[in-house]
């Protein structure tokens, strides 16, 4: 029988969480929840790169602030693999606003505001693919 590799999602540890020293604890939660790391990098997005990543939100009132924030310091980007990865990861990270996130989720534990909510998680398989291609070439995936 063929082994199912699972599906994939794209996460970023956002600048405030990196700055506060939460890379390790967040990766630990990801690890304990059974995700396999397919690809990972530590980098700082330029304004133009952050604009491109969040282009779907270009008409939202928070777009410019979000772009400034996401390019304000280094982030960790990673492709994660697990069965039903997009939904499983959204469940692990919790609601967009950390105040509304369930106890024990990544955003409840490490988020500091609606904007600085610790992590990004893809919202669909299609966007997971687009976002993964944004950060990683095929030879950076294992
Ligand atoms: P999610 O990250 O849960 O998928 P969205 O895709 O709606 O949420 O928004 C993208 C990011 O923009 C959020 O993670 C958050 O950092 C920021 N954001 C969303 N809504 C607001 C808002 N009303 N004010 C400020 N920042 C926001
Ligand atoms: Mg989103």
Report on the architecture of this protein:
The chain is α+β, with helices and mostly antiparallel strands and about 140 residues long. The chain has one domain (about 10-135): Alpha-Beta Plaits (2-Layer Sandwich), CATH 3.30.70.141. The chain is about 40% helix and about 20% strand. Strands 2-3-1-4 form a 4-stranded antiparallel sheet. Bound molecules: adenosine-5'-diphosphate and magnesium ion. Adenosine-5'-diphosphate binds near residues 96, 115, 120 and 123. The site of adenosine-5'-diphosphate (ADP) has 9 residues, from loops.
Mean pLDDT: 97
Q: What is the number of helical segments per DSSP (H or I, 4+ residues)? A: 7
- The shape, in one word, is globular
Distinct bound molecules: adenosine-5'-diphosphate, magnesium ion
Largest sheet, described in full?
Answer: 4 strands, antiparallel
CATH architecture: 2-Layer Sandwich
Please give the structural blueprint.
Elements: E1 7-13, H1 15-19, H2 23-32, E2 36-43, H3 47-53, H4 63-70, E3 75-82, H5 85-93, H6 106-110, E4 119-121, H7 125-135
Antiparallel strand pairs: 1-3, 1-4, 2-3
Helix pairs in contact: 3-4
Bound molecules: adenosine-5'-diphosphate (ADP) and magnesium ion.
Adenosine-5'-diphosphate is lined by residues 57, 62, 66, 96, 114-115, 117, 120, 123.
Features:
single chain, 142 residues, alpha+beta, Alpha-Beta Plaits, four-stranded antiparallel sheet, 7 helices, 4 strands, 39% helix, 18% strand, globular, binds adenosine-5'-diphosphate, binds magnesium ion
Structure summarized in a few sentences:
The chain is α+β, with helices and mostly antiparallel strands.
């Amino acid at each position: 029988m063929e082994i199912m590799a699972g599906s994939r999602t794209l996460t970023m540890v956002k600048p405030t969480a990196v700055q506060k020293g939460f890379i390790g604890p967040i990766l630990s939660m990801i690890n304990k929840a059974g995700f396999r790391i397919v690809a990972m990098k530590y980098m700082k997005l330029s304004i133009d790169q952050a604009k491109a990543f969040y282009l779907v939100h270009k008409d939202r009132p928070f777009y410019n602030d979000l772009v400034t924030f996401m390019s304000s310091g280094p982030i960790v980007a990673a492709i994660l693999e697990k069965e039903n990865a997009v939904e499983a990861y959204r469940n692990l990270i919790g609601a967009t606003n950390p105040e509304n996130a369930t106890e024990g989720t990544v955003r409840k534990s490490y988020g500091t505001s609606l904007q600085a909510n610790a992590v990004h998680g893809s919202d669909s398989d299609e966007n997971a693919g687009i976002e993964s291609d944004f950060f990683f070439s095929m030879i950076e995936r294992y």
